[in-house]
Amino acid sequence: MQRVERDLNRFREIVRGRIKKNLRKYMSHGEMIGRQGKRYVSIPLPQIDLPQFRYGPKQSGGVGQGEGEVGDPIARGDPQDGPGEAGSDPGSHVLEVDITIEELAQILGEELQLPNIEPKGRKNIISEKDRYSGIRRTGPDSLRHFKRTYREALRRQIVSGDYNPDDPVIIPIGDDMRYRSWKETLLPESNAVIIYMMDVSGSMGTEQKELVRITAFWIETWLRSQYREIDIRYIVHDAVAKEVDQETFYHIREGGGTKISSAYKLCQRMIEERYPATEWNIYPFHFSDGDNWGGGDTRECIELLRQELLPIVNLFCYGQVRSLYGSGRFAHDLEEYLIGNENLVIGEIADREDIYDAIKAFLGKGK
Length: 367
What we know:
By secondary structure, the chain is α/β, with parallel strands linked by helices.
């Protein structure tokens, strides 16, 4: 059983390495998000062959059957097998591998070199966690500690004079058995809330919303690994803003102009009423194509950020997605008027290949 577990762990490491190597590709595709469950994500990994033995016909010679010669093939196909006709079924070169959300977050953090977040909200929730940190003499077989048991048996046989170095047979008895033990530890936890805001005016099409959906998946994957409990709120806006559920957020179709300040005002009101900064770690993410209504609304947005939002949030991230109809001006205005503010991160997502860099920019500060 231990050998099987060792081989399985080795295969998992191979899979883990393949995921890390191709993480940028996976981050740019939305198909994987559709395969997620409550705790697992199914990832398609091409060109991974599971090892298996192949046997040739009996009494046909070759390595393993007789003496054999250098260069003899290890496995031979049936000589009657021919190329045959072309088939219509797909080849089995893609392996679906399930990994936990926690493993995926760990891979994401390692590959993007993301620092762990230092929560600023008050740690007002206490949870219990079991840690296997000790050894005891009794317990179930599933928790038996092989090395400690072997060591105790070896020590006993050496002391009693029963140990024979020429025939080193170690047979544990009941008194030799050692088992892993656990103890409960109390861990303080912090609350966190993600507030997604998205422009749903006429210039934001289906492709732009898909970029937001994929980016949001990776944001949540990382933040959930840093906090035990996370609230997620959704705000959509064109000229006016409103709170919606997740399904509506990604599929709503609106038209009209854009007034970004309406979303920032609703976000500020939401924080004041439900998520006080003394108790919550707050992460607003705003996605837009950078087009904003004139009449001084951009100046109002900048003042809202400078005076109201940036002082109380852990991080405010603005992701500008490329649109054929958007001017892209808003990101430049934020950079110009709020330059040097450590709580503000601006990322441009022109296409799916930019999601990797945007996530690294958003989450790379460890706030």
